[in-house]
Each structure stands twice: as C-alpha cells, then as structure tokens.
Amino acid sequence: SDYEQLGYSLRVNLFQGGPLKSQSLMRDSYTPDVFQKAVIDPRHWHGRKISELGRWYEKFFLDLNVQKAMKEKYG
Predict the structure, then answer these.
(1) CA angle, corner 27, sides to 26 and 32, nearest 5?
(2) pTM exceeding the 0.70 threshold for the entire prediction
(3) Residues 6+ apart with CB under 8 A from 45
(4) pLDDT at position 48, please?
(5) Which helix or strand (DSSP H or E) is residue 74 part of?
(6) pLDDT digit string (tens) for 16-48?
(7) What does DSSP assign to residue 20?
(8) Is 44 strand, coil or helix?
C-alpha cells in the first residue's frame, strides 16, 4: 500500500540532506587573505545607504496605499 512505500522510503533515508562541506567557486578562486581583508559595511549596500533605501520603500508603499485607496473610493 501507499503507507508501506512511504514507510520504506523513510526507513531507507532517501532524503539524506545536503553535503556536510559546501563548495563555492568564489571561495575556491581566491586566497583566504582576500576574505580577511574584506570589510563589510552594514550601513552601505551597493552604493546606497540603508537610510536611503528605507526612505525609498516608505515612499513606495505610501504610494501603493494611496493608489489602492483611490481605486476603492473611485473605482
């Protein structure tokens, strides 16, 4: 039956999960000192500061809410 097949699959452990050690082409391409020298600035993200992104999203969602309210009121 279906239950027996499911039980067999769970006992056999077909779903073993991911590898214990992950590999990355980027990590394999560079020497370890490159990653040690890299400085991650959490306040700077691809040329934009977090506060700028927050203000943009705030305006974006405000605009979406206004559009939704106008559509509900005037159709």
Answers:
(1) 135
(2) no
(3) 53
(4) 66
(5) helix 50-74
(6) 677 677 778 877 787 778 777 777 777 776 666
(7) S
(8) strand
Q: What is the DSSP letter of 45?
A: E
Distance CA 14, CA 1 (A): 19
pLDDT of residue 28: 77
Please state the φ and ψ torsions of residue 48, each to the nearest 5 degrees. -125, 145
Q: Give the DSSP letter of residue 70.
A: H
The one-character DSSP state at 18 is S
Task: Enumerate residues 6+ apart whose C-beta is below 8 A from 49.
Answer: 43
Which pLDDT band holds residue 56 (cuts at 50, 70, 90)? confident
Q: Report the length, in residues, of the chain.
A: 75
Q: Among candidates 19, 38, 22, which has minimal Cα distance to 30?
A: 38
